[in-house]
Amino acid sequence: MKLMIKIAIIFLAAIGLLFYITRNKPGPDNTAEGRAATSGSATGKFEKLTSLPKEVKESSAIVALPQAGQYLTLNDAGNKPDLYQIDEKGDIVKTIALKVPNEDWEDMTRDTQGNIYIADTGNNNYKRKLLTIYKLREDAPDKIQQINFTYEDQKRFAINDNSTFDAEAIFWYDGNLYVVTKDIDDKTMAKVYRLPDQPGQYTASHLGNAAVDSKITGAAISPKADMVALLADGKLYLFRNVHNPVSFYKGRHQEIDLPGGGQTEGVDFIDENTLIITSEGANLYKYTIE
Questions:
Q1: Residue 22 resides in a domain
Q2: pLDDT at res. 1
Q3: Which residues of the chain have pLDDT under 50?
Q4: What is the CATH number of the domain that holds 196?
Q5: pLDDT of residue 34
Q6: What is the pLDDT of residue 172?
Q7: Residue 83: HSE in the Cβ half-sphere, 13 Å Cα cutoff
């Protein structure tokens, strides 16, 4: 009888110890570098506004203009080097023809001074040694400046050697451009680089990696610079409560499905609670954060 009591006491003590260890076990690393930054789906409203005009058949970027309901968009590689100013009805307000090649235009962003930046950064075969971001003003499209760059950690330039140097996403913040790679093979992260927004030739600095499980196709930063959005195919990664945009990728993010969005490519903030999104399927969408 005494033996059974001793066994019962030991058993209960073991159960209690196990419960204590489990309860106090450290949780997963919540930084992007730790690859566990997702905090669940956000609540919001995703809606189609309209179809894009026939001239915009492969939209890969969009920028919200100061005029309410006005946007700039462009087509992917193999199309004319034109910018299209459109409204929320999908009508073309103005076409801006640029005298630079569209080798592989992928994204676009705008700074607080009204400068537009076009990312000619597509690199599907990884052979491009020098990538370009074009800087211009909408009211002076003939005065185009070039920002050329390479990646600091790219050492080889051949197909299948470096699958992490294809980028379709940029955003501007405080005198710098941030480039986010598509990362074809490793779908668990996207690399983040930084370079100055002034014309010249640079080596883009590798800042770190964002823990996302999709190929990133677009990026945007909110007007107050406290949110960063990364777009993927039918998905949005929203980094909220950003204290320092330079290291946004270290924070937690919400993974948001965009049902019916198809191959979503371009994204920008209209205001702190609303994003405008385009798809290669020639549609214009709006996502409202609730």
A1: no
A2: 46
A3: 1-5, 7-9, 15-41, 162
A4: 2.120.10.30
A5: 35
A6: 98
A7: 29
Check residue 186 and give its pLDDT: 56
The alpha carbon dihedral of 185, 187, 192, 198 has a sign of: positive
Q: The tokens of 98 are what? A: 């640029």
Specify the pTM: 0.84
- Contact at 8 Å (CB) between 31 and 37? yes
Tell whether the torsion through CA atoms of 134, 139, 141 and 145 is positive or negative: negative
Contact 215, 263 (CB under 8 A): no
- Report the percentage of the chain scoring pLDDT > 90: 72
Render 73-119 in DSSP notation, one character per residue. EEE-TTS-SEEEEEETTS-EEEEEE-SS--SS--EEEE-TTSEEEEE
Distance CA 226, CA 50 (A): 29
State residue 108's pLDDT score: 98
In a domain, 165, yes or no: yes
Looking at the domain assignment, is residue 217 inside a domain?
Answer: yes
Domain limits at 103? 42-289
Do the domain assignments include residue 8?
no
Query: How distant, in Å, are the alpha carbons of 4, 58, 90, 281 from that of 54?
Result: 83, 9, 10, 11
Beta-bridged to residue 230, according to DSSP, are 219, 237
Contacts of 276 (CB under 8 A, 6+ apart): 62, 64, 71, 267, 268, 269, 270, 284, 285, 286
What's the count of helices (H) and strands (E) in the chain, helices before strands? Answer: 1, 20
Predicted pLDDT at 25 = 36
Residue 217 is which amino acid? T
Asked whether the beta carbons of 171 and 221 are under 8 A apart, the reply is yes
Looking at residue 18, its pLDDT comes to 44
- Retrieve residue 221's tokens: 């930063």
Q: Quick one: pLDDT at residue 160? A: 58
Strands 190-196 and 176-181: antiparallel
3-state secondary structure of 132: strand
